[in-house]
Write a structure and sequence with these properties.
- By secondary structure, the chain is α/β, with parallel strands linked by helices.
- It has two domains: about 5-125 and about 280-300, Rossmann fold, CATH 3.40.50.720; about 130-275 and about 310-325, Dihydrodipicolinate Reductase, domain 2.
- The chain is about 35% helix and about 30% strand.
- α1 (about 15-25) crosses α10 (about 280-295) and α5 runs antiparallel to α11.
- The structure holds nicotinamide-adenine-dinucleotide.
- Nicotinamide-adenine-dinucleotide (NAD) binds next to α1.
Length: about 325
């Protein structure tokens, strides 16, 4: 089978992770182009990974005519790049958050749907080995009924206050839309659709206009409660998911080299599962390329992106109404 001709728009931090993943899959894809408004950034990437460098993503799409493209620009540009890909029927792997607002996300998903083009949102944690191990434990009923999920992503973010991440017109908001977007996707993957949300946000950094800490309480349609909490201003890095069921609990600590550990009712000790697969960016790219090759529906669809954006939208409404609960279902 011919290799998939793949391109990347936005060659910054996460663009590098997409390029690395594609370069690890040389039998499946060929990197044909990298576009970055900062041309030297694109040139440095192609010097390592191959392909042609462009400053203008439209020129790149029309020159190298890729089959598939990763959209790795800041969120204010996701819509323009995805819509350009849609009109050319190019498959898209679009970074999170889907867009700055629910309306923008709906427009880009509609553009892809109308053209019948394949869209996967880059909710990379779906491919994190420990998360898929948790999904398997839940599916097999080992944990019993899942009653609570706790998640925290906390760290001191060096780009808060000096980059687009804290410019509301570029990012669409602060840590809630940037980081807690992952938490909502993880909660949906483990507990199903969100039915209601209550949110609080706060800002500790004196110079920024967006929130740098956010905590939300969500309830799934089948009654699982999620406490999801993120901060950009706490010095000890933590990335953790805990799943509590009526028959046991599971802990995912992203800081540990091993995978998930779990303990069931009656167990005297924890059972540790191995982290026995490549990293999530590699698996995400591999899955995307397999879907492009076969026409299969991706594991993370445009509808998943919209579902997450509905929770983000509801969470901002709740936070701006002093934590008033917002129903989604
Ligand atoms: N999945 C994850 O874990 C993860 C991690 C980090 C960032 N992200 C997401 O990835 C996206 C990019 O984040 P980043 O950290 O790589 O940002 P970044 O600032 O490091 O890189 C963005 C790049 O886009 C380029 N760019 C800006 N305008 C452009 C245009 N018109 N055409 C082409 N390129 C343009 C910039 O020059 C820059 O090189 C954001 O949506 C972010 O939320 C996801």
């Amino acid at each position: 089978m011919a290799k998939i001709r793949v391109a990347v728009v936005g060659a910054g931090g996460i663009g590098g992770a997409h390029l690395k993943a594609y370069s690890e899959l040389p039998n499946v894809c060929e990197l044909v182009g990298v576009a970055d408004v900062n041309l030297p950034t694109a040139q440095a990437r192609v010097a390592q990974a191959g392909g042609q460098a462009f400053a203008d993503f439209v020129e790149m799409l029309d020159t190298v005519k890729p089959d598939a493209v990763s959209v790795c620009t800041p969120p204010n540009l996701h819509g323009a790049v995805v819509e350009a890909a849609a009109t050319r029927k190019i498959a898209v792997l679009c970074e999170k958050p889907p867009a700055r607002t629910l309306a923008e996300a709906e427009a880009l998903v509609n553009a892809m749907t109308q053209q019948g083009a394949l869209l996967q949102f880059a909710f990379c944690h779906r491919f994190h080995r420990s998360i898929t191990q948790a999904q398997a434990l839940i599916k097999d009923g080992k944990l019993g009924k899942v009653v609570q999920i706790y998640n925290r992503f906390g760290f001191r973010f060096s780009r808060a206050g000096n980059s687009w991440f804290t410019e509301p017109e570029v990012a669409g908001g602060g840590i809630l839309i940037d980081t807690l977007v992952h938490s909502i996707d993880i909660f949906r993957a483990l507990a199903g659709e969100v039915a209601g949300v209550t949110a609080s946000i706060s800002t500790a950094l004196p110079t920024i206009q967006v929130e740098d800490s956010a905590s939300i309480l969500v309830t799934s349609e089948n009654g699982t409660i999620g406490a999801l909490t993120c901060s950009w201003v706490t010095p000890v890095s933590e990335a953790e998911v805990r799943v509590y069921g009526t028959e046991g609990e599971a802990v995912i600590d992203y800081g540990q080299p091993d995978g998930l550990r779990y303990r069931l009712a009656g167990d005297e000790s924890w059972t540790q599962l191995p982290f026995d697969q490549p990293d999530r960016f590699h698996l995400q790219a591999q899955h995307f390329l397999a879907c492009v090759a076969t026409g299969a529906t991706p594991a993370v669809t445009g509808q998943d992106g919209l579902a997450v954006m509905r929770v983000i939208d509801a969470a901002y409404r709740s936070a701006h109404a002093n934590g008033q609960p917002v129903r989604l279902a």
